[in-house]
Amino acid sequence: MGSLFKPGWENHLKERLNGSSDFQSGARWFDGSVLLGMGDEILWLKIYDGRVIDHKPHPTPLGFTFALKASEESWRALLQEDRNEILSYTGSKKILVEGNLLEFMRLTKTVVALVDGMRALFREPKTGKDIR
Questions:
Q1: Residues 22/51, Cβ–Cβ less than 8 Å
Q2: Are β-strands 31-38 and 66-70 bridged in parallel, bridged antiparallel, or unpaired?
Q3: 78 contacts: CB under 8 Å, gap ≥ 6
Q4: Which helix (H) or strand (E) holds 119?
Q5: What whole-number distance in Å separates Cα of residue 36 and Cα of residue 74?
Q6: Contacts of 123 (CB under 8 A, 6+ apart)
Q7: Which of 48, 115, 119, 125 has the most other CB atoms within 10 Å of its CB?
Q8: What is the pLDDT of residues 5-54, one digit of tens each?
Q9: pLDDT digits (tens, 9 = 90+) for 107-130
Q10: Sign (positive/negative) of CA torsion 57, 58, 63, 69?
């Protein structure tokens, strides 16, 4: 997810999600993985018991439970919105959902919290903590 975030942002996202009560409660009974595809860049997140327990820049041989994929431009537009519009973007197919759609719908709260975490990292000011 090259030009949207600085290297190492994945660890910051993991920390942010694992500290989010919305993410934790939404993913409490989920044992699976989510793939984020931004253009050519990929982030695979393994989620278990309400926490991100692993992440990789590629899917594992077992694949993913569901994926959110779009161009870098679509992701940038979503991250710059005044509010979290992930459901609007997936409904209008600006961001495509692949894989297990039932799990995607069941995990709506989790997906919203995930995008909230990405939006927060994207919007951090350009300081020593900036990862954009």
A1: no
A2: parallel
A3: 70, 85, 86, 89, 94, 95, 115, 119
A4: helix 108-123
A5: 13
A6: 79
A7: 115
A8: 777 889 999 999 999 999 999 999 999 999 999 998 999 999 999 999 99
A9: 999 999 999 999 999 887 644 444
A10: positive
Is 119 in contact with 79 (CB distance < 8 Å)?
Answer: yes
Smallest CA-to-CA distance from 25 within 14, 33, 17 is with: 17
The Cα–Cα gap between 25 and 93 comes to: 27
If you ran DSSP here, which 8-state letter would residue 38 be given?
Answer: E
* 63 CB-contact burial (10 Å; exposed 0-12 / middle 13-18 / buried 19+): exposed
Taking each helix axis from N to C end, the angle separating 9-18 and 108-123, rounded to the nearest 10 degrees, works out to 130
pLDDT tens track for 70-97: 999 999 999 999 999 999 999 999 999 9
Type of residue numbered 60: T
Where do we find the tokens 């997810």? 1
Give yes or no for a contact between 118 and 95, defined as CB atoms under 8 angstroms apart: no
Do 110 and 31 contact (CB within 8 A), yes or no?
no
Q: Which residue is associated with the tokens 């996202």? A: 13
